[in-house]
Each structure stands twice: as C-alpha cells, then as structure tokens.
Amino acid sequence: MSNRLICICNFVEKKEIKLLFRKGAESTVDIQNLTRAGTSCGRCLPLIDELVAQHQTEKPKIIQKEQDFGL
Ligand code: FES
C-alpha cells in the first residue's frame, strides 16, 4: 500500500491516517471520528482496517524508536 487516497468520498490520504496513529488514534472508529473516512459509502473501511492492523503490529517498533530518540 503506497501513499495514496484511502477514502475517495472524504478525500482522506494514507499519510493523514498514519499521522493520526502517531497522535494516538488506535482504531477504525478513531479514524472515522477524526477524518470522516469510511463514514459515507464505506467502501474504504477494509483499507482503514488494514492500516489499523498494520499499525497494531508496528506500534511496538514506533514506541521503541521514539524512546531511542527521546521523542
Ligand atoms: S470511499 Fe470512504 S466512505 Fe466512500
């Protein structure tokens, strides 16, 4: 999955969702509430779910990196 438009209905890009993960978003519902992605036709929900699942597996690495760099 590259840097691209995830939600066509609400013009939400992957990079925007990734940024929200770094700011504490944890779930598809969080992403829906913060961006409205997935709240119109719902066709993008599988993509958002995929990003959430990917975030959940990457999260320990991000936290470790932030600790390593004092972020
Ligand atoms: S493509 Fe995201 S709600 Fe329609």
Describe the structure in your own words.
The protein starts with a strand and ends with a helix. The protein is built from 3 helices and 2 strands; from the N terminus they run E-E-H-H-H. The protein has a single domain, classed as BFD-like [2Fe-2S]-binding domain (Arc Repressor Mutant, subunit A, Orthogonal Bundle). The protein is 58% helix and 7% strand. It has a two-stranded antiparallel sheet with strand order 1-2. By secondary structure, the chain is mainly alpha-helical. The structure holds FE2/S2 (inorganic) cluster. FE2/S2 (inorganic) cluster binds next to loops.
Using brief descriptors, characterize the structure shown.
71 residues, Arc Repressor Mutant, subunit A, 3 helices, 58% helix, elongated
Short description:
By secondary structure, the chain is mainly α. The chain has three helices and two strands; from the N terminus they run E-E-H-H-H.
What is the CATH class designation?
A: Mainly Alpha
What number of domains?
Answer: 1
Number of helices: 3
* Strand arrangement in the largest pleated sheet: 1-2
The main sheet comes to: 2 strands, antiparallel
Cα gyration radius (Å) = 13 Å
pLDDT < 50 stretches: none
Mean pLDDT: 89
Instruction: Find the count of extended strands (DSSP E, 2+ residues).
Output: 2
**Class based on secondary structure composition and strand pairing:** mainly alpha
Shape, please?
Answer: elongated
Write the CATH fold name: Arc Repressor Mutant, subunit A
What sequence of helices (H) and strands (E) makes up the elements?
EEHHH
Shape-level CATH architecture:
Orthogonal Bundle
Helix content: 55-70%
Q: What is the first-to-last residue Cα distance? A: 27 Å
- The fourth-level CATH homologous superfamily is BFD-like [2Fe-2S]-binding domain
- Strand percentage, roughly? 5-15%
Bound molecules: FE2/S2 (inorganic) cluster
